[in-house]
Write a structure and sequence with these properties.
mainly beta; globular; 18-stranded mixed β-sheet; outer membrane lipoprotein receptor (LolB), chain A
């Protein structure tokens, strides 16, 4: 067998050295080392509610006239809130306030030459304060699955400048509960100054408007005072005055938001207008407009309220249901005027 010729060692070493030098040169000419990025921390998701405003459409250059756009569908659900700048009117007249509603997109026949910044739509609602009266109720209650019956009385007095309201519920073998609200009548309707709630001992809330807060008896922290704020008793009569002023502006599915104070806190209550119903009450048969406040949290109270159009929209039925199933149902039986 013929032996292979030996491969020269020095040329191979020179070739390997050249290849290695070329690789080193390429590595130095490239980007620096890639560093691992630090681990990203979890960031909270922040959402903001933005009120939609109408923005006029920009003109479109075309040789043919554009076909009109179909009108937007209008939702029946609306949030009604008191304006921060009420209209001031003389005492004794029907009060007027601006009501904020979602802005509706206009449908102009032709685009404006210089479109201005749109403003939120506003409505004027007349407050028709109910006349002074004394309302009597028959009361049925369910406490720890035990039925009870009793009587209730709502005394409502005002002179056009100030008001006083007292609601008392009593039943045999149960302690009497008394709620009392006093305040002024303003362009925003009722403006409570003090609210008290007494079963065995009395607790109170004070509306300190000069300080912009609601303070409470005991050690409960203060709450900020919002425009149009009410207490648990005055809110019933505030709703009466709002809807009685102009009922057509409160169709079914309208939702009314009012900050409502108890003797421990003050938070927004949302009342939704449902429909008119025929009511069979101890005082007779009449029509009542039903509003409902559904619980938003586990321990919230459900409130069903019926306002009578034929009686200045005063409350003729009020049903309160607790999360544990306890309930109180007060139904109108008679009225004393004056």
């Amino acid at each position: 067998m013929t032996a292979r010729p030996a491969v020269p060692f020095r040329p191979l070493l020179a070739l390997a050295t050249a290849v290695l030098a070329a690789h080193l040169l390429l590595l130095r000419a490239g980007p620096g080392p890639v560093l691992a990025s630090p681990k990203l921390g979890t960031q909270p998701l922040i959402t903001r509610s933005i009120a939609a405003q109408a923005v006029p459409a920009a003109p479109v250059a075309t040789t043919q006239s554009a076909s009109p756009r179909p009108p937007l569908s209008k939702s029946r659900d609306r949030i009604v809130q008191l304006s921060r700048k009420p209209l001031v009117v003389p005492a004794g007249h029907t009060q007027m306030v601006a009501i904020q509603t979602p802005a509706q997109q206009p449908q102009p026949s032709s685009p404006p030459a210089a479109p201005a910044a749109p403003e939120p739509a506003a409505r004027l609602v007349a407050f028709a304060i109910p006349r002074s009266m004394r309302l009597h109720y028959q009361v049925t209650a369910l406490v720890r699955r035990q039925p009870w019956s009793g009587a209730g009385e709502l005394v409502w007095r005002h002179d056009g400048d100030s008001y006083e309201a007292t609601l008392e519920i009593s039943a045999p073998l149960l302690p009497t509960r008394t709620q009392h609200s006093t305040g002024r009548i303003t362009a925003d309707g009722l403006a409570p100054s003090r609210f008290s709630d007494k079963v065995r001992s009395e607790q109170a809330a004070h509306f300190e408007r000069d300080k912009g807060k609601v303070s409470f008896s005991g050690n409960t922290p203060d709450a900020p005072l919002l425009p149009g704020a009410q207490d648990r008793l005055s809110v019933l009569l505030q709703l009466s005055a709002m809807i009685a002023g102009e009922p057509a502006k409160f169709p079914p599915a309208t939702t009314i938001s009012i900050q409502t104070a108890s003797t421990r806190d003050a938070e927004p209550w949302l009342f939704t207008v449902e429909r008119e119903e025929a009511l069979q009450l101890p005082g007779g048969t009449l029509s009542g407009l039903k509003l409902i406040r559904n619980p938003r949290r586990e321990y919230d109270q459900k409130i069903e309220l019926w306002l009578a159009p034929g009686m200045d929209y005063v409350p003729v039925r009020l049903r309160l249901t607790q999360p544990n199933g306890d309930s109180v149902d007060q139904q109108w039986s008679s009225t004393d005027r004056g």
